[in-house]
Amino acid sequence: MPGKSRLNATVTLRAKRERKAITLDIKLEVLRRFEEGEKLSQIAKALGLAVSTVATIRDNKEKIKASSQIATPLRASQLTRHRSAVMETMERLLHVWLEDQSQRNMPLSVTIIQEKAKSLFDDLQREQDGSSQKEKFSASKGWFVRFKERHSLPHFKMNSTAPGNKDAYPEVLKSIIEEGMWLLKRL
Description:
Protein name: CENPB DNA-binding domain-containing protein 1
Shape: elongated
Number of helices: 9
Radius of gyration: 31 Å
Order of helices and strands: HHHHHHHHH
Subcellular location: Nucleus
Domain HTH psq-type: 13-64
Strand content: under 5%
Number of strands: 0
InterPro entries: CenT-Element_Derived (IPR050863), Homeodomain-like_sf (IPR009057), HTH_CenpB_DNA-bd_dom (IPR006600), HTH_Psq (IPR007889), WH-like_DNA-bd_sf (IPR036388)
Helix content: 55-70%
DNA-binding region: 40-60
């Protein structure tokens, strides 16, 4: 059965190896060990890598070190962004406005809050028109969700029936008054 063993060997050789992602942290560990004088085969065995992979990492030493200097810290648990002063001020003002609206029991919707945020942002940016770079802000739903998280407003109840347009308030008020009058007549 010599033919059968050749067939198995051919199949085994053609099978693709699963690729393994190598993190920047591992690459830097390889370079550190290599600089300490460890041999390629020792490094490969210790880290569970192929010798050719360790050699490639060694050969790309400069690129890897350059990448590590501009990369996010290796053990950072979350990325942070620096927000502009206009954005910070707008969110503080919006938070105060929301608290005021809540105390007045005004009906609010996501759309109304987004419109108010956009309006505040535009006003603040107009005040700062000396800045050469205009920041863009769209008051998206994603921004709103993150805004609620940043300002600890999970308790903030949204009125789903609140109108999305400020001009619709008189209609809502009129319907509330009519309903109240109807109830009074029945008593």
